[in-house]
Design goal:
By secondary structure, the protein is mostly beta strands. The chain contains no helices and 12 strands.
Length: 147
Amino acid sequence: MIEPFSKKLEKYSTKDVSDSHVNGSLTVIWRDWDKIISHDPKMVYVSSVNPGEIKGPHIHTQRNSFFTCIHGRVIFIIKDKNNTYLEIESSEDEPVMVFVPKNFASAHINLSKNISRVLTLADVAWRPNDNEMINTQFTDYDFNKWK
């Protein structure tokens, strides 16, 4: 069975071409030769989460998703098949790719004081009339601990 996982991402400093001072960074999200993702992505998108807000929980019944927070700070909460909650942080400073397989319930909450942005790679492309997402509740999970 496929299980959720997370992977710390490679982050490199980039340098100015004239005097080599650090002018930013580059974070590797996906390379085809890494073989982290079993099926090549069919859709890539960025979603935003307002400060203190929660997206989900819901279940995707058809698609596997790989999430990385690229701006701000987010906690991903995934309910595994043993009804245990996995809590994985991803942020612009400490980028982590979070894998949520299809048929696993998940949510994420923005811990930043500003809007956070999450880059998603999915193995099935979304269509507006898709009916593959099921909303659910984490009635035994304390979201308030993050506020």
